Amino acid sequence: MADTTFDLVVIGGGPGGYVAAIRAAQLGLKTACVEREHLGGICLNWGCIPTKALLRTSEIYHLMQNAGEFGLKVDGIGFDVAKVVKRSRQVAGQLSAGVKHLLKKNKVTVFDGDGKLAGNGKVAVAKDGKPVADLTAKHIILATGARARSLPGLEPDGKLIWTYKEAMVPDTMPKSLLVIGSGAIGIEFASFYRTMGAEVTVVEVLDRVLPVEDEEISAFAHKAFEKQGMRILTGATVEQLKASGGKVTASIKLKDGKTESLTTERAILAVGIVGNVENIGLEGTKVKVDRSHVVIDEYCRTGEPGVYAIGDLCGPPWLAHKAMHEGVICVEKIAGVKDVHPMDVRNVPGCTYCWPQVASVGLTEAAAKEQGHAVKVGRFPFIGNGKAIALGEPDGLIKTVFDAKTGELLGAHMVGAEVTELIQGYTIAKTMETTEAELMHTIFPHPTISEAMHESVLDAYGQTLHF
Q1: End-to-end CA distance of the chain
Q2: Is the pLDDT of residue 2 over 70?
């Protein structure tokens, strides 16, 4: 068992980990990446990417069902669950292989196994309990990610009560489904299964769906989901799940205090995540853990000298692109790159790929007011946008929030077709610290949905043109 010396060892090959390793290698650091299962991590293999493949299938299926609205005739509409899942897995497999290629191209040494801190500047790698290698490095990045949270009485069994992993590879399409939690993961699965024909009930303990989003956007999405036939119970709690006879029975405490029993073919748990802090050697170190997540400073340093942490292992928002950016910040600081800027979470966009899509960046209107801002708020509905109407997607809304005194764009919130692509325009504007003046004088192409972004800005200042 040979000792191997590196400048940097990254434990975890998910979005944050592999990007950190690649950037470190580009900066001349001799780098190793330790990954126990799949390069690309949960996001690429069991999260972001394969779920988008599934949602694309449901989007096409929806269009086929409504082909008549476009003057088209489609007969014999149906789907093959096995082929739907197979395509999703092939997409994930292709991209995982791509990550392997990128690491090899950048001369990052990859170790297959579990990485664990083993003393000052040391990482022990083991596979199935057997030692693989002892690595030494001046710098070690923890990028072990997170896993689905389970609650007492709501434990998944992998057969009838699913986590996101089982929900991505159904052997049959359930006729009825209970989704517990209405964050991005829960709502995306609710949207997929409802569009594919399942009767879907969503239970959310808070008072609204997509609770991290602006309240107005949440309300708009709620109405859209109900219009599609979803049943949504907010302010409600699933107190117990029982799986038997091929079905799941839930005891649900409703907002009014009454209890309802609901039986469905399957249930999905989407009640948050917990960091993978176990079995990575944190014992005896100065690494601080708060509610299952590692505490870091603005440059991803932990309390232990030479040990860093990034991604879902650390604080919110728990998003792949945030993890990637943290990885770059971390290694550039390690390598001594000048002008490394700390992460500003206000500039991290959030996207939910349900139907209709939801996307946002920055402060909600309520949060802006709570922080003491006098605000100007603009809104523009998709029904006033020519491209949205031509696409057959007239249901949507774009909302912008500005500081009334300085014109700073504080936040942007969107619901509707393709808003997960559009939000980057506002993200760039926030990163460049533009004001309403620059946005007003920006020329948006016609006809595009992006024109609604311009109109929302204009509306905040009483200048909207098309509504």
Answers
A1: 71
A2: no
